Amino acid sequence: MLWHWEGDSKRRGVRWTLSCQLTLTKMLKLLLPTPHLIPSLHHCNTLSSSSSLHHCNTLSSSSSLQFQCRFSLSLLSHPHPLTLIPFRSNTRRGGLSLHAFDSSSDSKSDEAETETEKEKEKEKGGLNDQSVRIGDEDYPSGEFEFEPITGWRSFIVKLKMLFAFPWERVRKGSVLTMKLRGQISDQLGSRFSPGLSLPQICENFLKAAYDPRISGIYLHIDNLECGWGKVEEIRRHIFDFRKSGKFVVAYVPTCQEQEYYLACACEEIYAPPSAYFSLFGLTVQASFLRGILDNIGIEPQVERIGKYKSAGDQLARRTMSEQNCEMLTALLDNVYTNWLDKVSSAKGRRIEDIENFINEGVYQVDKLKEEGLISNIIYDDEVIAMLKDRLGVKSDKDLPMVDYRKYSRVRKWTVGISGGKELIAIIRASGSISRVEGRLSVSRSGIVAEKFIEKIRNVKESKKFKAAVIRIDSPGGDALASDLMWREIRLLAASKPVIASMSDVAASGGYYMAMGAEAIVAESLTLTGSIGVVTGKFNLEKLYEKIGFNKEVISRGRYAELLVADQRPFRPDEAELFAKSAQHAYKQFRDKAALSRSMSVEKMEEVAQGRVWTGKDAASRGLVDAIGGLSRAIAIAKLKANIPQDKQVTLVEISRPSSSLPEILLELGAFLIGADRALKELLQGLTLSDGVQARMDGIMFRTLGDYPFANPILSMIKDYLSSL
């Protein structure tokens, strides 16, 4: 069989062709695979950047292949100076085409078979949007395939459970109860953290699917405070769990669009008669404080680069700009369209029917039951009685149940999910970006550049890691810190594959970090882009006059008072210099984005300008490589590291929570008083945050995520404190 590849790589300025004569010598399965995530492999990337290629390693250890290869390389243009820091592989966005020729079969039948396989893959991946083809390269979908534990492996698992730690013991036939409500963090939490983090939630679904002691999941969904990216990730894990054949039912005492969207992934939905349902549609809000600031004598002098860069508008404007309105309308339309599409698909209804039903104003659970949008109207104890009847538990006996917090302490090894020898590092970056940690900063309250860079360097220096996945959930922050982290990520990508995985938001400085990776994976509703900068200061002259405060400055140098003289507005020459510095920062951001995404500066300018995109729109514009969650990012990392997709890997969390006494006391105190979120935000606001900011606007978007930075009062306080 003859294989022929051809394509180009704009980053390195080369044109390449590769032809291989392939002979299959044997195909032998050595061992039964241990249950794990088995992504669907669409494309085998076995290219080499060398000018001659003598052999090629395949992506399957179960076959032995012989290759006869011809490789030619021709320069198209002079390389960009910044490409002195190359990626391991420079073909991910090149024009890649794959042609197979087999003299023993008709080429037309091969093409028909290929098209049929593509259609099957499309239907198979349509449930969770993980197999979407983006750009010119097909990445593995990372789709979960359940393989039951049988034979001798089942015996080994039972033996492990027999000798498990006391806190890992679960009664046979138990129902796992999980409560999804409030804030869901992308960072790993300690045992004293309130609720569960996203990694723990997803791991519980995976363990429960293989755990023979778990018969099903009883899911409580109530008042979520997270973005659509995390909801999509959890929803995908619910569908994956259902592949095990076990049941999952949802109980929703209060429900809006986000909660119902998640509940639709379950087999059955129950609600009490007094449930609060408010399915009225989605809204976006933007608040403006300029009128208040004028009344108290504060004049914000904000410099924004990018016509869609709305960060600072809530301070500098009284109304929404035309460009901001256009951007927010597009985001809202994308979320609403996706909601209608997924809900109608889950309930077997037409999109028009669901939309008409929503437009009637849904608040009565009776009406939802009549329309078949919930299974029944019963109380929590009645749901438990129903589950007892389903599992054959006698009425005078208690239903065996295990709490989600206790179950999170069960190791994957105990239920038969063991990692492989190959290690992939998971580096999590959540929160606002700052350069250094302030004296009062709370651990894990944001992304501190100096700490993040230390983790990146540790992974780069370690030979045990074959690849790294950077999980980003950040609206941005300090532009300098973002650039320093981008540099380190790019250096890491020169030594081993680095994949960026976006959660709820990876915008502005968050996107700055991601574009240093070899490939970017985002959820369809991730908020990303926002390639722009904003900077400014407050003129407090009128406020000082009102309160009788006076401030005098003695300086040397024409522009010495540029950032410290808050008792007066900018002079014309100062305003010009201030604008030039912001424009310079924007050009650096834009040019590096163009380089990282293999685009021309002109093309990048069209999608930059500070505009926020959903992950799906960003993918269609070349800002993102693939749509999916963390599992797909891991599958792509395996592909780039030449690890077979059916081979297990061990994921190593680099950002594990500290077990120090101060951290434990802090987490315990937050758990007791319920002030974790407010405390972290307040202390974060006291952290030094001078300089140009690459930050996404704090949109008050209920269904896109109730982030702390969306509070306009806190934003004003933070900006004011940073200007003092």
UniProtKB/TrEMBL annotation:
Biased composition (Basic and acidic residues): 105-126
CDD domains: S49_SppA_67K_type (cd07018), S49_Sppa_N_C (cd07023)
Gene3D superfamilies found in the cross-reference section: 2-enoyl-CoA Hydratase, Chain A, domain 1
GO BP term (any one): proteolysis
Chain ranges of the Peptidase S49 domain: 241-393, 492-642
Keyword Protease attributed: yes
Swiss-Prot/TrEMBL keywords: Hydrolase, Protease, Serine protease
GO molecular function: serine-type peptidase activity
Pfam families registered for this protein in UniProt: Peptidase_S49
Ranges where the record places region Disordered: 98-132
Family: Belongs to the peptidase S49 family.
Protein name (database record): Peptidase S49 domain-containing protein
Organism: Canavalia gladiata
